[in-house]
Amino acid sequence: MTIRRSSKDDQQNYTKLDNDYVRNTDKAINRKIQARKRKMRRIAFFAIVPVVIIAFLLNILLNQNETLAAKEQKKIEAKKHLSELKDERDSLNLKIKQLEDDEYIAKLLRKDYFLSEKGEIIFIIPDEKGQKGDIPEEKDKKDTISEKKGKKED
């Protein structure tokens, strides 16, 4: 018979019997401890793995939501730009229709280039600040000529 000493407590000296019963109970206790360790490992594995998988899926979901929100914002901006372009197209179509009208062109030429019809006199009114404006000198001479012609006809 061999004498075993317990390593748990060095102050107590006691001997452990070394017979079949003690060995069998030690083996049974060790098996229970090992089974408990395996069980805890299994529980930890089946608890941690789903948490990791759920965290991974939540991360993917959040990234997709951010991407979706960014695309929705781009879609809103694109719709706004589209409506602006449609408004611009409508105004340009109106401008085209107006430019097809001879009366509108004549009115536009009279306004922009200070052209006049026969017997018509053009008066240039200064701005509120007292300045004459962007009218070149040639236009002023033309105005005075138009005024002289208008006086001769009377």
Structural write-up:
The longest helix is centred in the middle third of the chain and has 80 residues, at 20-99. The protein has 154 residues and is mainly alpha-helical. It is 71% helix and 0% strand. It contains 3 helices and no strands. The protein is rod-shaped, with a radius of gyration of 51 Å. The chain has helices at residues 20-99, 102-113, 137-153.
Features:
154 residues, 71% helix, rod-shaped, disordered C terminus
SSE layout and pairing:
Blueprint: H1 20-99, H2 102-113, H3 137-153
Outline of this structure?
With 154 residues, this protein is an all-alpha fold. It is built from three helices and no strands. It is rod-shaped, with a radius of gyration of 51 Å.
Element pattern in H and E = HHH
Number of DSSP E strands: 0
> Low-confidence stretches at least 5 residues in length (pLDDT < 50)?
138-142, 144-154
The span between the termini is 153 Å
